[in-house]
Design goal:
With 61 residues, the protein is mostly helical. 82% of the residues lie in helices and 0% in strands. The radius of gyration is 15 Å and the shape is flat. It starts with a helix and ends with a helix.
């Protein structure tokens, strides 16, 4: 079995159920994106969301 899969299997059993479910959903999304050859689009959306999250968290001056 691939090392990554083995590590993921261990982590999914260690993490809290909510965290494990989030990871499962995100991995499923990545698989779908890879199947449609659209990973580059997802990456830019993820970066955009990170920026929006940072802007939401910054204190008002």
């Amino acid at each position: 079995m691939d090392t990554l899969i083995e590590r993921l299997d261990v982590k999914l059993r260690e993490w809290a159920p909510h965290t494990a479910e989030q990871v499962r959903r995100r991995i499923a999304e990545l698989i779908d994106l890879a199947d449609h050859d659209t990973l580059d689009v997802a990456r830019s959306r993820a970066v955009e969301q990170e920026v929006l999250d940072l802007l939401d968290e910054s204190p008002t001056r």
